[in-house]
Amino acid sequence: MFAAAVPALAADAECVVPSKPGGAMDLTCKLARRALQASPGAPRLKLSYLPGGIGAVAWHTMESQRRAEPDTLVAFSGGSLLNLAQGKFGKASAADVRWVAALGADYGMIAVRADSPFHKLADLIEALRSDPQKVLIGMSGTIGSQDWLKMALLARLAGVEPKQLRFVALEGGGEEFTAMSANYVQVISGDTSEATLYADPRKIRVLAVLAEHRLPGVLSSAPTAREQGYDVVWPIIRGLWMGPGVPDADYRRWVRAFEHMESDSGFAQLRAEAGLYPFSLTGDALTRYINQAVADYKRQASQFKLVR
Fold this sequence. Notes:
Blueprint: E1 12-17, H1 24-37, E2 44-49, H2 56-65, E3 72-77, H3 78-86, E4 98-113, H4 121-130, E5 136-140, H5 146-157, E6 166-170, H6 173-181, E7 187-191, H7 192-197, E8 204-210, E9 235-242, H8 248-263, H9 265-273, E10 281-282, H10 283-302
Helix pairs in contact: 3-10
């Protein structure tokens, strides 16, 4: 699929998923692996899982104990940046690691089981207005996470106090869909990339995608929140970082490798199959974007008094 070889890399490399298998972080590493496998001369990318603390365990492990590994990548999302902005990783900051590449973006979404009495977003909003304690909402992370903020923004627009909502904290998108399948929660606040993995209309109904416009592909029939009268848009970037002690030469090799892969037309197909949409930044440009995003998230979180 990929016409030319990537710049020289080690024969073996690792991609750390900072959550349990099955969610969007897992998807990010798998997309990187597929893209590398499609490139001549690229390394074998082994996936490993380091869940816990909504990503804090992986962050602190890599930043302190494995900070100089030249062929280890770690998945991140917009949620990781939100956690940094709110101080959920302690004193950690965006400057503590080396940002390699953004592989794409997806969007927030709200979903229910296919047999749910909620057929559209208005049905869910009405139930929350009537009695917010009766609806269990599954989310990845805790209060202040991006999944929490998505629902909080919708609730606030509907005149519902977000602190009245009942959330169940879960570890990643895989757990969210499993919990909803078992009716442990009735609604999930998640991401469109995760929804594409469970898009079977016999099982899942996506009430709203938090994008500017309807999305192409398997979720094309899912309406946006905006078109249903709730102007909430939540884009989420997906990418990779490395430890702060990685030698500059090794870091630059990986940056060039992802620049090469993402410029190839074959990568666009892999990205689409992963449920992601175009968003490509690497190295210094990505670092500048991250710094601005963290500042923006901090301002947004301060509206709900979430910044520590």
